[in-house]
Specification:
heterodimer; A: 255 residues; alpha+beta; six-stranded antiparallel sheet; two-stranded antiparallel sheet; 9 helices; 8 strands; 47% helix; B: 269 residues; two-stranded antiparallel ribbon; 10 helices; 41% helix
Amino acid sequence: MPKIAEPRASASTVDRALDVLLLFSSVRATTLGVSEIAQELGMSKPAVHRVLTSLRSRNLVELDEESRRYSLGLLAVSMGLRYQRGLVAADAAIPALRPLSDECQETTTLSVRSGDRRYYVEQVTPDRPVVMMVQLAVPFPLHAGASSKAILAFLPEAQRERYLTGRLDPVTPQTRTDPRSLRRELEQIRAQGYARSSSERQTGAAAVAAPIRKGGEVVAAMSVCGPEARFDADAHAERLLAAVARITAELDAAA
Amino acid sequence: MSTSANGIDPAEAPAGDLGGTAATVERALDVLICFVRSDAPDLGVTELAEKLSLSKAAVHRLLTSLRGRGMVEIDEVTHRYRLGPTVLTLSQSYLSRLDVTALAAPELPWLCRATNETVTLSRRAGLTRYYVEQVLPDRDVVRMVSVGVPFPLHIGASSKAFLAHLTAADAETVLAGPLDGPSGRPPLDPDALRAELDQVRTRGWSHSQSERDLGTASVAAPILDYRGEPRAVMSVCGPADRFRPEACAAALLEVTTRLSRKMGHGVIA
């Protein structure tokens, strides 16, 4: 059997194809043309065209025949929805985001932890002129923002201490980075069952967040967040805790 | 050049392996599709290799590329793979850029020709809805609606199509409010309306005759998003004496089902 000529090239072809695909989520434009992609990624136009043909064959991108421009295809949505459904808290927590958002008239979110990072996996925004919108899948440290702190506070002590003795960088000027003061705050979060944040992760944004636990283990965090100036943290916290209590009961009943 | 766990250089893996570059990319995408179609939350290398008729070394190499971009992640304990958070950036990009009005607009003339009646599109604002588009058939007597005027959600086919798919809390707010009757008749009975909304959900479309305006009839169906929320409602409407609700509803559902799918509704089992 003859050797395949360029194993390296072949491996990196997949990487380049993924770069083309991910370009659709990193640029503001909804549609992209072959030349733009080629220029942006430093690829030849024929190479981009080949990749797009492959992506199109699997419904990851669509071609508008008239404009000859490409946009994301339906498989992109299927993957995201399948990912969400695979999360432990998904079935109980995701349907609860809309009613909670309606009650609070603010954005509601769900986050999960991966190692020392936390990222949003879903959000629901209220129907009003000014709303807060978060970016899904962008990792944040576990000490910045209400959702992060809600997770960190309820991690097993050894794990939490390991995190707190590591490097704690600020995300905004308001991020708390002193381990002693963080420890005190986390203790308070455990006592009251939820975390608060104002401008810690994003200046001008406020949030309350509570952990979602299954069998005692933190599997996600749910938050209510909005513009700081109008944010009624006490009222939102009460509704959030009621929603999270229902979700936790549902998860434990299913276990 | 990395070698796989079993020490075989993936480049020298035996038959059943990857050929040209386009084929390699497509196999990588097929790996992703396996995760989308699988009922299990995670998959092992062996299972993937079997599903795709590839060598384990080849699958391992594809997973390494996918993992490098966060498209899949590995469970450090079980060594099984699942989709990674990067896929969320793709679905969020697709979903956040969807403009239901723009998506539906090109479909309206087709539906108008197919039914030879007026076709409309409505959006919701709080507990009201308003027409954003209408396309009129080329005939003398046509139903015309007022674009941009807010209407309550309890009366008329388009309103009931929204109402049937609202969250329970929103629907109850509407049902608890004043339910002014059709064309000057007495107020509606909330229980009768609830029963009608059940029927709308089961059948997939709503119907009205002389509700908002005497002598008019209409069928309507929602365009649902991936959460099952109604993002817009499309209707076919005309003078009541000649209106054929079943035939119009069939053509209407063909369009709204296709549009709902584009909004992500029902794309995964």
